[in-house]
Amino acid sequence: MTPPLITLEEHWYSKAVFDSFDNALKKGIEKWPGAIERLLDAGDLRLKEMDLGKVSLQIISHCAAEDPSPEVCRAGNDQLALEIAKSHETSTRFAGFAVLPMRDPEAAAKELERAVKKLGFVGALVDHKTGHGNGFCEGNEYDVLWRKAEQLAVPIYLHPSWPTEKQFQQAYAGNYSPTAAGTIGGVFDKFPKLKIIIGHFGEMIPYMLDRIREQDHRLGKTGRTFSEVYDENIWITTSGVWSLDPMRCILANTKIDHILYSVDYPFTMNERGFEWFQELEKSGLLSEEDLALIAYKNCEKLLGVKAPTKD
């Protein structure tokens, strides 16, 4: 019998965030069949489609935007909190990840604290790059955000986003040596209890993990190895990758309690994720106990949420 399912990379738009930008990404989303209707809904349609995929609890996050301002993020998080509160009048099937103004590290830290302490959010989902500085968020100026996330003991979900026009035209660069993979960048030395979630089966890291470990010495001078960071600070989700082949790889090199089920709604439908989970159940790759860890128990422990039980 399939255990309860909690999903973490599930997108939505507040009017505040959706109206704040207009770029190629937005135009692409508008052309995606059914996406806008679903992204603007946090009610009956979303719940109906959660039921189709047997999703017990959905952690809602804003879909990608264009580096929203502190004011836009605040308004967007307030709107999401209202939607969650409204839904809780009849059920407890939603929780929230905050959207943060990554262009302003100080403001991002303050908004994360407000969203967690006042709005009851369980972390944040942010684009992996920002309009600040060199376009990445591992520089010292972002210590204030990582410190706040560590103090609050909530994870930050790093979501991929399209390169900016400037990045399309120039080589990528970061706060690390040119030959380094850049995943460490000194951040985890300073904040050893920081929790980061990465979607889509780890964004290729598990498949290149042995190569990264072999090249660890080229990452520059760091206090912790990449293996230590991967094992202790990184969680990965299954969002939008419906094959057992990557799962076989991940089970061989990733701690079972750092793997989380997710869908990537509405860009992948909940029922497709459920079909895959049923395939996983039948595959014999996992024990019943480990299936439950991936389905909901790991998420409950990481986020401090609880999958609702049926009457």
TrEMBL record:
GO function term, MF aspect, one: carboxy-lyase activity
Name the Gene Ontology biological process terms.
secondary metabolic process
Q: Name one Pfam family in it.
A: Amidohydro_2
Q: Which domain of life is it from?
A: Eukaryota
What keywords does the record list, in alphabetical order?
Answer: Decarboxylase, Lyase
| Residues of the Amidohydrolase-related domain | 68-304
For whether the record's keyword set contains Endoplasmic reticulum, the answer is: no
**One GO CC term on file:** cytosol
Q: Does the keyword tRNA processing apply?
A: no
Similarity-based family:
Belongs to the metallo-dependent hydrolases superfamily.
Protein name in the entry = Amidohydrolase-related domain-containing protein
Q: Which species?
A: Metarhizium anisopliae BRIP 53293
